[in-house]
From TrEMBL:
ABC transmembrane type-1 domain: residues covered: 70-297
Keyword entries, A-Z: Cell membrane, Membrane, Phosphate transport, Transmembrane, Transmembrane helix, Transport
Membrane topology term: Multi-pass membrane protein
SUPFAM superfamilies named in the record: MetI-like
Residues annotated as transmembrane: 31-53, 65-95, 107-127, 161-181, 234-254, 274-297
Annotated CDD domains: TM_PBP2
GO biological process, one term: phosphate ion transport
Function text: Part of the binding-protein-dependent transport system for phosphate; probably responsible for the translocation of the substrate across the membrane.
GO (cellular component) term, any one: plasma membrane
Highest taxon of source: Bacteria
Gene3D superfamilies: MetI-like (1.10.3720.10)
Lineage of producing organism: Bacteria, Bacillati, Actinomycetota, Actinomycetes, Micrococcales
Protein name from the UniProt record: Phosphate transport system permease protein
Organism, scientific name: Arenivirga flava
C-alpha cells in the first residue's frame, strides 16, 4: 500500500481522472444552462404566436398593447438604477476603505441579510410607509418644479406613483449591488493603492486613481445584476403602483405606466384563451429585454478588459 501511495504515476493517473470528470461535469452544466434557456425561449415563442399574429382578445394590436408596458418596465428600472448606483458605490467604498474593521464586518453582514428580504415585505413597506411619506414631496415638486415634465401635475394624493416604485426598487437592488461592489473594491491590488499614497495622493485621490478604475467592470456587472432584478420585479410593483395604459415620464401623477411583470401578476389569474397568450407574449418581450441588457453589459465589460 505504501508503494502505491508513493508511486508518482498512480497519483498522476488519479489527478487526470479527476480532471476529466470535473471537465465533463462542467461541460454538462454549461450545456444544461443553454438547454434550459432554449426551452424557455421555445415555450414563450410557441405560446406567444397567437397573440403576435391575432392581437389581443379586445381587438387591439399586440404592439399597441405591449409598448406602454415595456416603457414602464424600462423606465421604472432605469430610475431605480440611477438612484441605487451612487449609493451602492458609496456604501461599498465606505466599508472597504473607510470604516474600521469591526464596523465594516458588521455592515457587510447586515447588507448580506438585507439581500434576503422578500419582495412582498418591500411592497408592504412601500404602500404603508413610503407612499404616504412621498405625498408632501410630490406636492412640493409639482408646485415648484411642475414646469419640468418629470414633475408635471396633478400630484397624486395617495403616493402610489412611479417615484415611489422607483425608490422601492432602488432599495431592493441596493444590497446585492453593494455587496458585489464591496467585493470588487477589496480585490484592488494593494501595491497600486500603496503606490498612489506613497506619491502623495489623498485617500480619495487614491480611490479615484486606483480603486474605481480597477473596479469599473465589477460596478457595471453589479448594476446589470440589479437592473435585471428591477426589470423582473413583480409583487412590490404590483402592490405599490397605480397602473394605467399610458406612456408618461411624469413621476408624481396618478397616471403611471404599468410594468410587464406586474401586469402579468395582476391579470393572469382571470385570463383565458387569447388573453393568456397575450400575457405570455409580454413575458417574451421581457425575456428579450433582459437578454439584451445582459448582452450589452457583457460586451461593455469585455471591451473594457481588452482595452485595459
Amino acid at each position: 500500500m505504501s508503494a502505491a501511495v508513493n508511486d508518482p504515476a498512480a497519483g498522476l493517473r488519479s489527478r487526470r481522472i479527476g480532471d476529466a470528470v470535473f471537465a465533463g461535469m462542467s461541460r454538462w452544466a454549461g450545456a444544461l444552462i443553454l438547454i434550459v434557456l432554449a426551452a424557455v425561449a421555445i415555450f414563450l415563442v410557441a405560446q406567444a404566436l397567437p397573440a403576435l399574429i391575432q392581437g389581443t382578445d379586445e381587438g387591439e394590436s399586440f404592439l399597441a398593447y405591449v409598448l406602454p408596458l415595456a416603457f414602464g418596465t424600462v423606465w421604472a428600472a432605469a430610475l431605480a438604477l440611477a438612484m441605487a448606483i451612487p449609493v451602492a458605490v458609496g456604501i461599498a467604498l465606505f466599508i472597504s476603505h473607510y470604516a474600521p474593521r469591526r464596523l465594516a464586518a458588521g455592515l457587510g453582514y447586515v447588507i448580506d441579510l438585507l439581500a434576503a428580504v422578500p419582495s412582498v415585505v418591500f411592497g408592504l413597506w412601500g404602500i404603508q410607509v413610503l407612499a404616504p411619506a412621498t405625498v408632501p414631496l410630490a406636492d412640493w415638486l409639482t408646485a415648484n418644479l411642475g414646469w419640468i415634465p418629470l414633475f408635471a401635475g396633478p400630484a397624486s394624493g395617495t403616493g402610489r406613483t412611479m417615484l415611489t416604485v422607483a425608490i422601492v426598487l432602488a432599495v431592493m437592488i441596493l444590497p446585492i449591488m453593494t455587496a458585489m461592489c464591496r467585493e470588487v473594491f477589496l480585490q484592488t491590488p494593494r501595491l497600486n493603492e500603496e503606490a498612489a499614497l506613497a506619491l502623495g495622493a489623498t485617500q480619495w485621490e487614491m480611490i479615484t486613481m486606483s480603486v474605481l478604475p480597477y473596479g469599473r467592470p465589477g460596478i457595471v456587472s453589479a448594476a446589470m445584476l440589479g437592473l435585471g432584478r428591477a426589470l423582473g420585479e413583480t409583487m412590490a410593483v404590483a402592490m405599490v403602483l397605480s397602473p394605467a395604459t399610458v406612456i408618461s415620464f411624469a413621476l408624481v401623477t396618478t397616471q403611471n405606466p404599468a410594468t410587464i411583470a406586474s401586469n402579468i401578476a395582476l391579470n393572469f389569474p382571470e385570463a383565458h384563451g387569447l388573453g393568456v397568450n397575450t400575457l405570455i407574449a409580454t413575458g417574451l418581450v421581457l425575456f428579450v429585454i433582459t437578454l439584451a441588457v445582459n448582452a450589452l453589459a457583457r460586451w461593455y465589460v469585455n471591451r473594457r478588459t481588452v482595452s485595459a
